[in-house]
């Protein structure tokens, strides 16, 4: 059984962004040489997320509105965590959207259902962030 690990870094331009990272994961999968197995993709930061969903702009806007209703950024003083940084909402949004995904690899390709794509969700951006891609299989 093979094991392959790679970190990928992002520079986000906004506080909150949803970035389709499926092509990045596919490139790393090709480099790994694994044809049958599993890929784990996880965020290495406590204020960002990895999740699977549809790459549709209206849905992305819905996520933004929904998350902001559940954990509004402002007012900052509504959160006890915000004594040091104003990012408590980002921690909560990450918890809702999840830390990682696992996808099956079949015949050297990500084994998705219809419309599925992998996303990096940034909730406290404007700085350098990274994800981990770990692939195991044969």
Write the CATH fold name: Jelly Rolls
Q: Total number of β-strand segments? A: 8
Look at the structure and name the CATH superfamily: YjbQ-like
Average pLDDT for all residues: 97
N-C termini distance: 5 Å
Q: Structural class, from secondary structure content? A: alpha+beta
Radius of gyration: 16 Å
The total tally of domains equals: 1
Task: Give the SSE string.
Answer: EEHEEHHEEEE
Give the spatial strand order of the biggest sheet.
1-8-3-5-6
In CATH's first tier, which class applies?
A: Mainly Beta
CATH architecture: Sandwich
* Biggest pleated-sheet summary: 5 strands, antiparallel
Fraction of residues in β-strands:
35-45%
Helix residue percentage: 25-40%
Topology:
Blueprint lengths: L1 E10 L5 E4 L1 H11 L4 E7 L4 E6 L3 H14 L17 H10 L2 E7 L2 E2 L6 E6 L5 E10 L1
Antiparallel strand pairs: 1-8, 2-7, 3-5, 3-8, 4-7, 5-6
